[in-house]
Amino acid sequence: MFDTGTTGFMLLATSLVMLMTPGLAFFYGGLAGKRNILGIMMQSFVSMGITTIMWFVCGYSLCFSGDSCGGIIGDLNKAFMQGVDLNSPFAGNTKLPEFVFMAYQMMFAIITPALITGAFVNRVTFKSYLIFLVMWQLLVYYPFAHMVWGGGLLAQWGVLDFAGGIVVHATAGFAALASVIYVGHRRDKQSPPNSIPLIAIGTGLLWFGWYGFNAGSALDVNAITGLAFLNTDVAASFAGITWLVIEWVMVGKPKFVGLMTGAVAGLATITPAAGFVSLPSAVMIGIAAGAVCYIAVSFKNKIGWDDALDVWGVHGVGGCLGTILLGIFASKAMNGAGADGLMSGGSVFFMHQVVAVIGACVYAFVFTYLMLAAINLITKVKVAELDEDMGLDASLHGEQAYDEGAL
């Protein structure tokens, strides 16, 4: 009944996307100061547990079952995976078991809130983060996953997002900005990355996993899968080198962290467009990602937003940029299930992309800010100054990343 090749590929893609969350933990852990390595890494790893539980209980159903509230959210008909058995096919590709699709989409739900954590490193209590993790998914991620990928309002409007420019990166990036504005500055803003090699390991795992993130979003094994795979690598490469060159010119030295940050910006930016644009368009998207995200981070630094690990500048701006560039470069000649962008005469599609991503960013920003204020009424969101000075690894978790004592 099911195609073993397609099923096997999607299980591999699911595993690759799962690997991105530990990769993100390494990436953020290396960027964080030495007293806050475990705190930031734990916020990624705990999402793997909490989000999996939520996805089984209600998340999958709210995203991909039925359609309610005018297409904003699904229903609970598949809560606890009721009605889904070993023989249930995925409606979007009957060669694939629904269980596998459920697992694949769960990995996206896991990493999306974890992306936000890099913005407020060493400033948020663990208890408030757990509440945030649950509420943000219920009221931000699930609605947008349904509206874009679950046949909801935005999908009906013709909005496209191949692998998460709106659903993942734009919402997480602007939620990160709201978080930064709410919790305020770090007391020590000069804390350097504790381990650039650890950042490199995280970047490698993210880049590797992103092939499953984007190519797997074809939900099949065909030419579109290959196109998304190649576009992903090309955009990341061009973005990384673009960032490297710009920073080299601006500061006088080629920075390894800049090269890696630029590559991640390229990965985030190509995500919504990976299976809908040509290879030359992916090149242009990669170059634009490296330049625009570098400018965004520079602007953030100038204006004084303390987004510690540049979540807004890389993921938020990258997701928005990629969604808008999809509205420009999309071509039905590349993917008949897509649309024609502005360069192919699709002005209406372009406008829909722009309006959708702006709406997603505004909603994610406003809701996140208000949600943090509400959580603060239940439990303190921002850590005490003494805990921040000590570092969250020791003050909140009673652990340290490295044993600095003598043997």
Description of the molecule:
This protein is mostly helical. The protein has a single domain (4-82, 93-391), classed as Ammonium transporter AmtB like domains (Ammonium transporter fold, Orthogonal Bundle). It is built from 14 helices and two strands; from the N terminus they run H-H-E-E-H-H-H-H-H-H-H-H-H-H-H-H. The chain has helices at 4-31, 37-64, 98-116, 126-149, 153-156, 165-183, 196-215, 223-251, 256-270, 279-303, 311-329, 347-378, 385-390, 392-395, and strands spanning 89-90, 93-97. It has a two-stranded antiparallel sheet with strand order 1-2. Helix 8 (223-251) packs across helix 10 (279-303) and helix 9 (256-270) crosses helix 10. The protein starts with a helix and ends in a 12-residue tail after the last helix. The mean pLDDT is 96.
Tell me the number of helical segments per DSSP (H or I, 4 or more residues long).
14
Summarize the biggest pleated sheet: 2 strands, antiparallel
Gyration radius, rounded = 20 Å
Shape: globular
| SSE order | HHEEHHHHHHHHHHHH
- Percent range for helical residues? 55-70%
